Protein 1
Amino acid sequence: MKRISRAVAVAAVLALAAAACNANNKSTPSAGSTAAAQQGGTFHVLSTAKEISLDPAKSQNLGTSTIHLVLRGLTSWKTSPDKAAELVPDLATDTGQVSDGGKTWTYKLKSGLKYADGSPIVAADIKYGVERSFAPELSGGLGYHKSLLVGGDKYAGPYKGGELASIETPDDTTIVFKLNKPYGDWPWIVSMPAFSPVPKKADTDPAHYGEKPMASGPYQVQSYTPGSKLVLTRNPNWDKSTDQARTGLPDSIVTDMGLQPDVVNQRLIADSGDDKNAAATGVSVPAALIPTITGNPAVKARVATSPSGALAYLAMNTKRPALSNPAVRKAIQYAVDKQAVQVAVGGPEYGGEIASTLITPGMDGYNKYDLYQAPPAGDPDKAKQMLQAAGVSNLNLVLAADNTSSGVIGVSVAQAIQQGLKRAGINVTIKPMDNTPLTDLITGNKADFDLTVSSWLPDFPSAIGNIQPLFASSEIGNGGYNISRYSNPAVDSAIAAATAESDRSKAAGMWGAIDKQIMQDAPIVPLIYARNAFLHGSNVQNFYLPPYPPYPNVLIVGLSK
């Protein structure tokens, strides 16, 4: 899962922001229709990244990002402007056959699959690709499977540990995964980069494999110059008829690297030369540029905004004496001025919609509800009354905030919260901190803080990612992201049951019930569903931000002429 530190996982920091589904049930797909996209041309991606690794073992990329132009998995994501991402078969014939009470998942590969060099893709290559992800020297990638596969806790990868017995390949087209517990979202897990095929014979230099991996998707690496440029050209052996997720429209895709964020946005605003065929896929529009964009209809038409995405929230440390009383936490639900938070990050159109749930719109299991029904600007009088009834006065709290962020977890949002709580008679002292020490503080074992603002985006489209990492007792301290220190045995049991359910419709209902169960204890205040906004050139088509993930789907982008 990703703790978003601007607008991130348990790890990654990206320039983000996102918003709502039923609260705002249409996206803004910007200029250009699907019908206008044509085969051919060179699509340019303007990036701030100085390095790009296409090694699947080391990747934390979402299912609609650049690495999946080159690599395919067992399953993939299919997006639309107004619906949650759909799981579709990719290299596999279906999304998985489950047995053994949810602990065994079996996949059959489609026939005729080939790499760019014409050699066949076989099940053993997928097994080896997953095994590589356990190697310590290839760390950093999404690792859900590592704790789920039997023996994964002791396995050290193929370079030192041999094979992982819980992945079986009885023939070239069959792969079987043995899990240590039922896990209903396994079909999403096998869409992650680590489940891309890697032929053992091609892995002669693991440290540099990501510079030119064996291509199974519509594109292959032609050249890569760190800090400058990544050039992808067509894979002649990619068969569109086997691929539901990718259009393969451009002849080539060039990523221009090492750019400053303001340079990216200014170039796209200018829309000249090759930049007409360019887009930003990881550089969100900053609040400072919103007046420039809204004042120019031609530019505004080239901004794609997300209808939903990361949840920004105020976490209350339930282990602190002042906040251990649920009545106090419920009073704070009314004291917070969510409208001021919304204004601080760019308003409803570009900043995001006001939030009231834990599961974000665009996820199966999301149900629009507002347990406390506080006015958007808060109700300080009611908050005062609730505190008085609880026998609490002179409440003084410390709010740890990220002084390196200009987005939803930054000091400006902390100040908006501070002012709202002050009206309810709650004194808040803001403690500005750099991102790394702040993360160490809120995920560590001492947790010397009362409040903090955070933002969270799951790594795949399942409500487990909205709930389990933030509210399961197992995620308190030791680097976990249950930063409210919330612990409820009944909730833990409900999480375990929902995790094991392989019927995704049933699981969604279970997660929705857990959402309301947690909010009754009020460990956090949902603030906004933070909206993303990305610019693109006038020739770029099929460029929109789905409800989830709140990023452009580069697998379907094409150009007009």
Note: The CA atoms of residues 292 and 299 lie 9 Å apart.
Protein 2
Amino acid sequence: MTANVAVETTPEVPLWNDPSQDIGTRVSALIDAMTLEEKTAQLYGVWVGASAEGGEVAPHQHDMEEAVDLDALLPAGLGQLTRPFGTAPVDPALGALSLLRTQTRITAANRFGIPALAHEECLAGFATWGATAYPVPLSWGATFDPDLIRRMAAAIGRDMRAVGVHQGLAPVLDVVRDARWGRVEETIGEDPYLVGSIGTAYVQGLGSAGVVATLKHFVGYSASRAGRNLAPVGMGPRERADVLLPPFEMAIVEGGADSVMHAYTDTDGIPSAGDEDLLTGLLRDTWGFEGTVVADYFGIAFLKILHGIAADWADAAATALRAGVDVELPTVKTFGTHLTEAVAAGRVPEALIDRALRRVLTQKARLGLLDAGWDPVPAALRGADLDDPATLRGSVDLDTEANRELARTIAEEAVVLLTNDGTLPLARPRRIALVGPNATVGTAVLGCYSFPQHVGVHHPGTPAGIDLPTLEDALRREFPDTELTVVQGTGVDDGDIFGIPEAVDTARQADVVVVALGDRAGLFGRGTSGEGCDAESLALPGAQQRLLDALLDTGTPVVTVLLAGRPYALGRAVDEAAAIVQSFFPGAEGTGAIAGVLSGRTNPSGRLPVSVPRSTGGQPATYLGARLAQTSDVSNIDPTAAFAFGHGLSYTSFDWDELTVGRAETDTAGEFSLAFTVRNTGERAGTEVVQLYLHDPVASVVQPVQRLIGYTRVRLAAGEARRVRVTVPADLASFTGRDGRRVVEPGELHLRLAASSAEARLTATVTLTGPARHVDHTRRFHARFEQETVRPAEPAA
């Protein structure tokens, strides 16, 4: 990361402002020159909202905050500005001007001229008014395409950096452990390798644009009891090490992540914000992380008011600092006066302040914020008349055609075709009945951290800022010659059944029914999916299952379309629907992507990042179960999924054969090699997603029956065949042994080349020899896939 403006240093430039000097030397000099109040001022943010007229930001008042007096704070400096764009609707150009003017005020007010670091949410795009809404992370997982997600993150990062934002609070690397949890939509899936590989790509993409990615939530948030938000976590150290930690480890070691956000939750009585073994011992001392640890919003105060392990605010601050938290967000509460008074009284050593400060200032130096002549004018405003805000309005486009095209590609790759009796693709039907609560709602494609759902709902008179075509709009465009009749039938979660008879009558008069079901994203109970919107069971919300069953009874083919934030049990539809199309909040281009799959314009290639349950109960359950987690004769609950992790259909067919094992035996430091052929035996181009699972028949501790260790997308024209070669490092067989260390043990392994976790196509039996070998965070994380065409596409008839 480089400074905004190249500068020439002079002898008068203070050492800490000289970019030609070593960053460590600069930071040390600056720390030595600062007072205690100036030091602590760099360790907290203030939650602000940009001015809609381009003036300076104003502090945002939240029900958990005390009023903030910026005039009183700024002479000492300010560490961060919290969500200047993501707090209220504001034109992007005027928001950038507001941030610019505020940064000018901040640098002028403190004697070292240090600007604040501005952060924003970016979970499914830059969460500000007028910015492209991309598919949610669960859709990223459904693509099984890290390169595509890396491109998306780079685009998001460029938009953020262009208006003056430095840090993004994403990606979420929590692994789904219970699909009832409301924040499933924010996760990438239920498998740690999928989460880690996709999440690392996002970190790399954001970083390529000069924006710091923040990994969250470290660690265990998604493993709360009963899937309840911010509930205690019951989890052993081995599950934590082998399921929840690897995505963070990968994103730090391979992705170079420079920020981590602690989780709200406690594990076995230790809150993450106060866990020194986690935030210092593991994260820094073992993994070598050198960035900043930021608090999840109000998380340090929660040590006192929720966890009860701190006696007062100073105690909470000291506990978090000692554990390894460097920055209090969203606003100053414990790291301000309470902390400085505690240091003065000898309750908190100043060395803890200096340790956190060094990390914060190092990050600012890397971003160019300490350089002499740092220019607060962001790229989007360079050359503009900054004295005439009226001319700026509408001049910054955060929803470009390039962004929309990228969002469209992700949405298309993320649509998962679960079942199809041949009804799809639809062959120019004369009459379509479009039914369901998500048929005519533009925001049905958005997750809870999209700006319209997160902030826009509080400003009902303000337009969404981006085009959000409904499924009705998309189908009318896709099928212009078809008679389309639209009936709601029921709401998302209102339980209303009075519209079902009309829906049934409409269905009986149609050639095919498209029923649009699923979720409404929201926060804290305002939706059926999202933060604080946890589910008691995985039944469809409200009366949606009753509507679906009534439509199935009509005898008209029913195509079930899900626009949802989590997987749901679909009852009879699993076996009786003509087709089921699953999408996970696919973003602003999502309805067009779904329509393209229905018409056949797009050949679906998405694969499930989470299992779809057969029954509404029996949770929690994921495919990563040990033998005792499978169906058995000693329990009447069958956890077998209706559709397994990794499942997805295509409009073409593929054959896998000619498996050869180039190296079937190696020592515990070696690698295996396999090769096989994938053929497109259908009549149109398509993409097969090859998944590699490892089964360890005998291990020193209980292992899941299988786990994903690699994958690749194989794009094939009709009649084309490719030879796929796979190199599998022995490191991928490692797990946490009885002594708490990660080990590769000798013995027999089964490498399953599969179309899903329930559909192995080819299996190679291989053997590890020699002594058990311990590995650490420097181990190899990936199998290597290579593809070679062995039969070209067949010429068109």
Note: The longest strand covers residues 759-769.
